[in-house]
Amino acid sequence: MKRVVFLLTLAAIILSGCGRAPSGELVGVQGRKKWHEPDPFGMVFIPQGSFVMGPSDEDVLFAQNAFSRTISVDAFWMDETEITNNKYRQFVYYVRDSIKRRMLGERLDEFLIMDDEFDRPLAEPRLNWNTRIDTRDEEINEILEQLYYPPEERFWGRKEIDSRKLNYEYFWVDYDQAARRSNRWNHQTQQYEGTVFNQQGEEVPIVNRSSFVLRDVVNVYPDTLVWISDFTYSYNEPMANMYFWHPSYDDYPVVGVNWQQAKAFGIWRTHYLNSHLARRGQGFVQNYRLPLESEWEYAARGGIPLSMYPWGGPYTRNMEGCFLANFKPMRGNYTDDGWLYTAPVASYEPNDFGLYDMAGNVSEWTENAYDVSFYTFAHDMNPNYKYNALPDDPPALKRKVVRGGSWKDIAYFLQVSTRTYEYQDTAKSYIGFRNVRSYLGTGR
């Protein structure tokens, strides 16, 4: 018995010596869990690196909007394919369902969460996604009636959601305004100094930290009429009628989405995942966003330096004579590559990073604003040039860089270095997008 007591006492002394009691030494905050970023579903890892950004061949069109320059980019994740109709539809359905629950919550308390898990009242009620919407309930149907097209606008009397009401409200932090030296916290006066520009372009004094949090609202439904408006004297009504909503096109890239809608999609995707991680007590991840122009070109090259196309060679056909991407191979001939319009994503071989359709199928929005001289003044580390919604920004900053070429373009636009642009509020039948997510950490 004495031996047992002695051993227990000795163990207690040893444990107390290497326990969590303060030792006077700098050891950092203890008890923090190690966290390793899991591979995100549907994305591939692009390692950090440097590359020669710009033309890998002569400037055959004399565009003179780029020159070769060595730059470096950080590691990031990138969607292996363009965002498909079905993936974007998940965003549309989320917005639709959240609007329904918000409308119901204004009249019925069961569609709102008033208290947290400890029965403490919330500062602002949240939507209750667990309550089932019973469409047989007359009161529920009456509340939701205003979400549908009014009777005089219905086609053959079909009751359909009014896509004009599918508006998504989102927020983001304007780090550029927050980082300005004039907009700083004065420790002596205990107040912010300086001014910011709000969403209406008005210069207002900084009130508190919320002055840097901007709000916007965007309609999320794709413009399905782009198939008609993009082409003159061309019959594309079948695509306008079916392309986005029919299951046959689920795996085709979404089009008719402008830059602002693509940006909102990334913000929603971030919130959607981080909300799930928070419920499980896990750490957040970096934001989903559109790729920087430099990130897009680096990823498109697939680690192959000085290559004209993502597949590494200077030709658009393989050894068997088959085309390597979906584009317009010859004058008036859209179909020799196998497709008249877009193709299902991943219909062609990926590049060496595992990315599909970095050339052809649909062009892709990037984060950056377009400037002919961008390569001249941009930084050589993660070069970035963007529109900050400030009134003194020139209108040209509303032009966003588009990369990769599409199903209706000739081979020149498929080259990894070719730069074009479109205005941020414009949707096209040949422009889609994919997301990236910065890697949590460095190296790898």
Topology at a glance:
Blueprint: H1 2-17, E1 43-46, E2 49-53, E3 69-73, E4 76-79, H2 85-105, E5 112-115, E6 121-127, H3 138-144, E7 167-173, H4 175-179, E8 185-186, E9 191-192, E10 195-197, E11 203-205, E12 213-219, H5 226-229, H6 237-242, H7 259-279, E13 288-289, H8 293-301, E14 363-369, H9 374-377, E15 399-403, E16 420-423, E17 431-432, E18 436-438
Parallel strand pairs: 14-17
Antiparallel strand pairs: 1-4, 2-3, 4-18, 5-6, 7-12, 8-9, 10-11, 13-18, 14-15, 15-16
CATH class of the domain at 47-84 and 223-444: Alpha Beta
Sequence of strands across the biggest β-sheet: 1-4-18-13
Name the helicity range.
Answer: 10-25%
Distance between the termini: 55 Å
**Computed structural class:** alpha+beta
Low-confidence stretches: 13-17
Number of helices: 9
